[in-house]
Amino acid sequence: MSKSKTKTDPLQIIVDEGNTIKFYGAKNKNGLFSNFYISPIKLKGKIWQTTEHYFQAQKFAGTVKEEQVRNASGPGIAFRLGRKKSNDYPLRSDWLKVKDDVMYEAIKAKFTQHDNLKKILLSTKNHKLIEHTKRDAYWGDGGDGKGKNMLGILLMKLRKELSEEIKKEEK
Prior knowledge:
By secondary structure, the chain is mainly alpha-helical. 42% of the residues lie in helices and 8% in strands. It has two domains: 1-39 and 114-171, no CATH class; 40-97, no CATH class. The protein has helices at residues 51-57, 64-70, 75-83, 95-113, 115-123, 150-170; strands spanning 20-23, 41-43, 46-48, 128-131. Mean pLDDT is 94; it is low at 1-5. This is Swarming motility protein ybiA. Residues 23-162 form the NADAR domain.
C-alpha cells in the first residue's frame, strides 16, 4: 500500500487503504485510468489522442471546434479548449443529458481497443476506483470523498461489463 503522491509507473496498480484504487493525472500512480493518459482511440471514424480529447470535443459535436479540440497537441490543451465556450461555438444543448454516455463511450473505446489496458482494468477485480481530486466533485471525489466520482463509477461499470462478457465467452 502506498499513499505517496510521487510520480510512478502509470501502468502499475497501487491499492490504497480501504481496498480502493485512487488515481488522478496520467503520470501519477494508477495513471492509466486518467483521461489524460495517452492511449489513442478510434471513434466516429477518427483517431483521438486521449479520451479527454474525445470527451471535450463532443461538447461541440458537428462544429469546427470539435476538430480543433481533436487536434489539440495534448490533453491539457484539449481540456482548456473544451472549457472555452463562445457565441460562435456554444456548448451543445443536450450536453448535461449526454455527458455521462459520452464519457462511457470514450473509456469503453480506450479499454477495449488496448488489450493491455483492458487486462489491467480487469485485474482491479472488485476494488473501488476513485478519481481522487479536489478539483472536481462530479467526475472525481472532490478530494474529501464527498464528490460523485462519476469517472470511477463508469470505470467500475465498464469493468463489470467486460468481466461478464468474458464469463459468457467461457461458457
